[in-house]
Design brief:
This protein is an alpha/beta fold. It has helices at 15-24, 36-40, 48-62, 75-88, 110-119, 134-143, 161-165, 169-186, 198-202; strands at residues 4-5, 11-12, 31-35, 66-70, 94-96, 127-131, 146-150, 190-192. The strands form two sheets. It has a six-stranded parallel beta sheet, with helices on both faces. Strand 1 (4-5) and strand 2 (11-12) form a beta hairpin. The radius of gyration is 16 Å and the shape is globular. The two termini are 23 Å apart.
Length: 203
């Protein structure tokens, strides 16, 4: 069985207990803060991974969850990435780069705080940081928000879609377990296989 280690005093012995704690903390409309890559750049643009990412965003919006985004890219790079993400169907309510916080990007928490300010949120307990790297997880932990790691298509998994699909089921499971362990050690409260699992987690 998994032990869900939470930041500060938040510790839960099961995924169900963690979900209950997350739900109990919701005082106002919650916010999900995504790594842009975790949502839009996993594997191929036409892949099922992108489809489930966009479906997850739609489901969260239908539940009145606001969507913010942090990134490791600078403003010049984002001038290229943002239009491409919009064309693919992803347009968060707010995006910020390290340039806007004095170069103090991940794992510093300041981009998350800027998202909270822009989206009118007052409590870190109402925020879920979603990402696919260890620096994403540490960013969320340092901000004191709920933090979720995404395995498939992640930088931590380090495999192309073709490489991943060529693996046997057991090889996939072993690779995913290793990524989950790294996310847990970094402090992730939740780990999901792909973003299709996120709406149920947040609800």
């Amino acid at each position: 069985s998994s032990v869900w280690v939470m930041s500060e005093d938040r510790s839960c012995s099961s995924p169900q207990a963690a979900r209950a704690a997350l739900k109990a903390s919701s005082l106002v409309a919650p916010c999900a803060i995504w790594s842009l890559k975790a949502c839009c750049a996993a594997w191929l643009p036409e892949s099922a991974a992108l489809h489930c990412s966009l479906l997850a965003v739609a489901q969260l919006r239908a539940a009145d969850v606001r969507i913010g985004s942090t990134t490791g890219y600078n403003d010049k790079m984002m001038a290229i990435v943002v239009p491409a993400a919009r064309e693919a169907g992803y347009e968060p309510d707010f995006i910020i780069t390290p340039d806007a916080v004095g170069g103090h990007g991940r794992p510093y928490p300041y981009m998350i705080f800027a998202n909270m300010q822009a989206l009118g949120l007052t409590a870190v307990g109402n925020v879920v940081k979603v990402g696919d790297t260890i620096s994403d997880i540490k960013e969320g932990v340092n901000a004191g928000v709920w933090t979720a790691g995404v395995i498939e298509g992640s930088s931590e998994l380090g495999l192309s879609q073709q490489e991943y699909e060529a693996m046997s089921p057991q090889e996939r499971e072993t690779a995913c377990q290793k990524v989950e362990e790294r996310f847990r050690r970094a402090g992730a409260h939740f780990v999901v296989r792909d973003l299709s699992q996120l709406p149920d987690l947040v609800h």
